[in-house]
Amino acid sequence: MKYLPFLSFLLFTSCSDSPEVDPENTQNLKVTESYLEMWQLVEMLGSIANVPPTTGSNMEWQEYYLLYEDDTFKKVRERDGETKEANGTYEYVALSDGEYLELTYPSENELIGNCTGEPKEHLFVESERKLIGTWWACDGPGLFYQKVEQRETAQ
């Protein structure tokens, strides 16, 4: 089970207070398109023990996912004044250890954070408002996302 170390850590951290989305950071995001859900990176943990978590503008980069009604997504990362984007399709999947948001990219991309090298990411659904990246299970950074808002879909 490739996510076992990651999930073990979740058991120890799931009761801790999670950071709230910084309204100042959210307002600075340049999002003008219509989307179904937005997930913003709110906390990062390093892969080295005893390194404190970082939040807000102290994080190494800013990042968010936009999920669209047609089951596509956009990932946007802002780092060192440069903005990079990646797109693909998404679905929520139930695996043996819980529910995940599965993001599938059309090809390899430097924004993909995973342990397998394939063009997919899995984010653990801890709650309706919190996702946790699984890259952490293989010495990547611990990435915690919070839902910023959800827009109503067109009927």
Tell me briefly what this model is:
With about 160 residues, the protein is mostly beta strands. The chain has helices at about 5-15, 25-30; strands at about 35-45, 55, 60-65, 70-80, 80-95, 100-105, 120-125, 130-135, 140-150. It has a single domain (about 5-10, about 20-30, about 35-150), classed as Lipocalin, CATH 2.40.128.
Task: From the structure above, extract its key features.
155 residues, mainly beta, Lipocalin, eight-stranded antiparallel barrel, 2 helices, 10% helix, 43% strand, disordered N terminus
CATH fold description: Lipocalin
Main beta sheet, described?
Answer: 8 strands, antiparallel, barrel
Oligomer: single chain
| Count of DSSP-assigned helices | 2
The top level CATH class name: Mainly Beta
Overall geometry comes to globular
CATH architecture: Beta Barrel
Strand content: 35-45%
Radius of gyration, Cα only, in angstroms? 15 Å
| Weakly predicted, low-confidence segments | 1-28
Number of strands: 9
Average pLDDT for all residues: 81
Overall SS class: mainly beta
Share of helix, binned: 10-25%
SSE topology string? HHEEEEEEEEE
For the largest beta sheet, what order do the strands appear in spatially?
1-3-4-5-6-7-8-9
Span of the ends, CA to CA = 40 Å
- When the domains are counted, the total is 1
